[in-house]
Specification:
CATH architecture of the largest domain: 3-Layer(bba) Sandwich
Number of strands: 19
Strand content: 15-25%
Largest sheet: 8 strands, mixed
Low-confidence stretches: none
Mean pLDDT: 93
Number of helices: 15
Distance between the termini: 44 Å
Helix content: 25-40%
CATH topology of the largest domain: FAD/NAD(P)-binding domain
Number of domains: 3
Radius of gyration: 21 Å
Structural class: alpha+beta
CATH class of the largest domain: Alpha Beta
CATH superfamily of the largest domain: FAD/NAD(P)-binding domain
């Protein structure tokens, strides 16, 4: 009998298992085998605002965080909207080799006495007032007091069986390119490129995350595209799309093919049921504009662990009413602030169709000219505590103010609706 069963060993599940294994008998189950899990490469932006929710990690470890994140390029066809963190005295955070970070978190769980099971998929869940049980494809049954679902976009049947909603799911693709460190430095001095083009995607940006000796690049596909079409488009972009050629020239694709898979966003309504909670991407805790999931995964894991520890000590039955503090904390920390801004930005940019280009160019021009907006970006990436959504309304007003007259007339209703998202 375990105290806590965690299904899914991505960033949310691994962080949660790392945290709760300090005070609970923990089982972490991952559907991939250990070898394939370790071979999945993830080069991510790791903002400073993540660190306050995952403090007991060595951020000086270069195998986990190979370089500091100093500079962003919000790029349109006309402008490089550069935000240099050192203009305000401190870096944005780190670049993470997230597969190594996850491996480290899983090892910490095991060192704390946790049990790790790879290559086992959960097929069925049963729940009583005394316990919750999971049954695997290998015929094993595991019992626990509480179940945490952290399966990203790949366990929706499980969470539906417990009465949870599921978030909206989209197709994403990324690939790694390689070159020596000097070559990557010669190509660009930013760590993160964020570019919007309606012809590439109407759901998210094209991105570049740059580490040492490798970078990750890709995009969120359009709703009606197949996986084959998305991979073909990525290859055409890498070979021919002029705006990004200066930043990838001479880099080589590795042996690993482009990674394609589901990405989910738009948070579900409830994150807790009797004896069960949902963490991270499985609950749609991915920022809708940037479609970045590390923050949602780490924050949900941290908040859930803090709610659960005293309940476990008091021999709780982990009813929905007892677990509801987890929902309330998520609402306060993420949903009513940082994610509210993301929803408005998503609607404004991705719902504007062919007008996306002029809105994005106006925004990137504004970044180059206005120190206040650059500071707001820096502050939001440094900390989400006290995040002020009024700043985002001000930014929307500034973008609208700088649009051509006829464009203002056409897009006025869009901007007005975005203000109330």
């Amino acid at each position: 009998m375990f105290d806590i069963i965690v299904v899914g060993a991505g960033i949310a599940g691994a962080t949660f298992a790392h945290k709760v294994s300090k005070f609970a008998k923990t089982l972490l189950i991952e559907g991939k085998d250990e070898k394939n899990k370790k071979e999945t490469l993830l080069t991510n932006i790791f903002p400073e605002h993540n660190c306050e929710f995952l403090r007991d990690i060595d951020y000086s470890d270069k195998s986990l965080f190979p370089c500091i994140h100093y500079k962003i390029n919000y790029m349109s066809h006309k402008y490089n909207g550069i935000v240099d963190s050192m203009e305000f005295g401190a870096p944005f955070g780190y670049i993470s080799y997230t597969e190594k970070l996850i491996e480290n978190l899983i090892q910490n769980c095991e060192d704390n006495g946790g049990t790790i099971v790879f290559d086992e998929k959960i097929l069925k869940i049963s729940r009583t007032s005394e316990k919750i049980e999971v049954i695997s494809n290998k015929g094993n049954t595991y019992s626990g007091k509480l179940l945490a679902i952290a399966t990203g976009s790949y366990g929706f049947d499980l969470q539906k069986s417990l009465g949870f909603e599921t978030p909206d799911s989209y197709k994403g693709v990324y690939v790694h390119l390689y070159g020596d460190e000097d070559r990557l430095k010669d190509l660009s001095d930013f760590n993160y490129l964020f570019h919007i083009n309606h012809n590439i995607s109407d759901k998210g940006p094209f991105f570049i995350n740059k580490g040492n000796d490798r970078l990750s690049t890709g995009f969120l596909g359009k709703s009606n595209e197949t996986y084959e079409e998305i991979v073909s488009k990525l290859n055409r972009i890498l070979d021919n799309y002029k705006p990004i050629q200066p930043y990838i020239a001479g880099l080589k694709k590795g042996q690993v093919k482009p990674v394609i898979g589901e990405i989910s966003k738009h948070p579900i309504t409830n994150f807790s049921q009797d004896r069960a909670i949902v963490l991270g991407e499985a609950g749609g805790l991915v920022t809708s504009f940037f479609y970045e999931g590390l923050l949602g995964g780490i924050v949900s894991a941290d908040l859930a662990s803090k709610v659960i520890e005293p309940l476990l000590k008091s021999s709780s039955n982990f009813t929905r009413s007892e677990l509801y503090d987890y929902d309330k904390e998520l609402k306060k920390k993420l949903l009513d602030t940082y994610f509210k801004n993301g929803a408005a930005s998503e609607y404004l940019f991705y719902s504007s169709g062919s007008s996306m280009k002029i809105i994005w160019e106006t925004y990137t021009k504004f970044i180059t000219e206005n120190k206040t907006i650059r500071r707001y970006v820096w502050e939001a990436i440094r900390s989400i505590e006290g995040y002020d959504v009024k700043r985002d309304r001000w930014l929307g007003e500034q973008i609208f103010k700088n649009l051509p007259f006829l464009t203002k007339i056409a897009l006025g209703p869009l901007f007005l609706k975005a203000m109330f998202k």
